[in-house]
Amino acid sequence: MRDPAHGGSGEAGATWALIVAAGSGERLGIDRPKAFAALGGRPLLAESLDRLDRSEVVDAIVVAAPPGWEEPTILLAEELVASKVVACVTGGASRAESVALALAEVPDEALVVIVHDAARPLLEDAVLERLLVPLGEGFDGAVPVLPVADTLKRVDGVVVTETVDREGLVAAQTPQAFLASTFRRAVAGHLADATDCASLVERAGGRVAVVDGDARLLKVTTPGDLALAEALLAAS
Length: 236
Ligand code: C5P
Description:
By secondary structure, the protein is α/β, with parallel strands linked by helices. Helix content is 29%, strand content 25%. It has helices at residues 44-54, 70-79, 95-103, 125-135, 180-187, 197-203, 223-235; strands at 15-20, 38-39, 42-43, 60-65, 85-90, 112-117, 141-147, 152-156, 159-164, 170-172, 176-179, 208-212. A hairpin with a 2-residue loop joins strand 8 and strand 9 (159-164). Helix 5 packs across helix 6. Bound molecules: cytidine-5'-monophosphate.
């Protein structure tokens, strides 16, 4: 791994990717953290790590590893020859805390920070390229989104209390990209109950644009999701 303070050639580059992989993934029902669930014969984390490392968009990578799994995470990066990985930190108690801990490794000179969930393995380079466009047009951040296909209901237990108007609603995915300076200010604020990074930037008054997401970027939560990701991977 490169020294985060100095980078490989004296500069680590402008665009940093943070991979948050510290979740326990209880709903998968396996004996290890979700990032180390098997997908296509290697750990789930390998897929996004490999793809971000190979992307021309990304200059350097920080991984937030599950507590106690730092060593296997570093070994995985070495096995993949993921030479852009400059640091592996121990993740925090929430996703937002894991993001903050990884962000602490990003040097002041960084211009763009991209945050990605290890739980979304099937990352295409085209999504990364789409995200950078709004950042060059004056936006503080960009998120990939998909239309919401189902009718949305608000419920109280088993009782429907409201049918939510779907107009103007989209589902947000990762990776999400931000101007580094804005993102730092947003993460320095109140982190509790943030389920994604864009919400922190929105809360701090930042302007976030949407770009087309990718249905293959599904988030692996249940064994069924893992089977679907496996099938999509095999078909690609
Ligand atoms: O739990 P969930 O799948 O929604 O988490 C989204 C992403 O955030 C996952 O990649 C997970 O590893 C990561 N995460 C984390 N630290 C936590 C909780 C989740 O890095 N404490």
